[in-house]
Amino acid sequence: MYEGKLVRLRAFDNADLMKCLSYSNDYEVMRTASGAVLYPSTVDDEAREMGKSTSYTSGEYQFAIETLQENRFIGKCGFTRVNWKNRLAELAILIGEKGFRGRGYGEDAVRLLIRFAFEEMNLRKLKALVFDFNAPALRCYEKCGFQREAVLQKEMYREGRYHDVIVLSLFRDTED
Predict the structure, then answer these.
(1) Where would I find the H helices in 78-134?
(2) Whose CB has fewer CB within 10 Å in the chain, the N or C terminal residue?
(3) What is the pLDDT of residue 120?
(4) What is residue 137's three-state secondary structure?
(5) How far is CA 2 from CA 6, 65, 164, in A?
(6) Exposure of 153 by Cβ count < 10 A (0-12 exposed, 13-18 middle, 19+ buried)?
(7) What is the tens place of the pLDDT at every residue in 14-61?
(8) What is the pTM of this model?
(9) How many CB atoms lie within 10 A of CB 41?
(10) Which DSSP category does 16 fall into?
């Protein structure tokens, strides 16, 4: 539906279910994507989660990420915690296919999300929360114009220790 240089953002379809489930059950994928306890998901869990990602939601907008050349589903991205009163949202992205990381696909998807947020949703601020050990995500967001706004010290427990969570933000160019 929304196309960049490398990816398109589209709605999820039933064919994505098992790939999403594999991402949710891959520790290496989820260790940087979720601050929750990493516990195995079932097909029913994933189907319920995908069911929330429709055009009829009011507080969360999620997209499947598909490559333009191969039409291959490689991850998901979108907005959580949309705050319409204050015109802001939290952005999140997950590139589940390991061979597509570090090659610009995530950056292209983030740039599409930014455009969608500012030009379609009329938001004025986006923010992203990144664990301090996720240097590739920090680089990606910063390349897309996000700036570090705050550090939530020792906010998330993973692999036997507490880690900082870095809050990044991006403002729309014009303030209305």
Answers:
(1) 105-119
(2) C
(3) 94
(4) helix
(5) 11, 10, 33
(6) exposed
(7) 899 999 889 898 888 888 888 888 888 899 988 888 776 665 566 678
(8) 0.91
(9) 18
(10) G
Q: How confident is the model at residue 150 (pLDDT cuts 50, 70, 90)?
A: very high
Q: pLDDT higher for 138 or 32?
A: 138
Task: Label residue 40 exposed, middle or buried (CB < 10 Å: 0-12, 13-18, 19+).
Answer: exposed
Q: Which tokens go with 87?
A: 């015109």
Gap between the Cα atoms of 6 and 103, Å rounded? 10
Strand-pairing partners, residue 3, are: 8
Structure tokens at 11: 């709605």
Q: Which residues pair with 75 in a beta bridge?
A: 65, 95
CB count in 10 Å sphere of residue 106: 27
Long-range CB pairs of 119-124, under 8 A, 24+ apart, other chains included? 121/61, 121/79, 121/82, 121/89, 122/87, 123/82, 123/87, 123/88, 123/89, 123/172, 124/87, 124/88, 124/171, 124/172, 124/175, 124/176
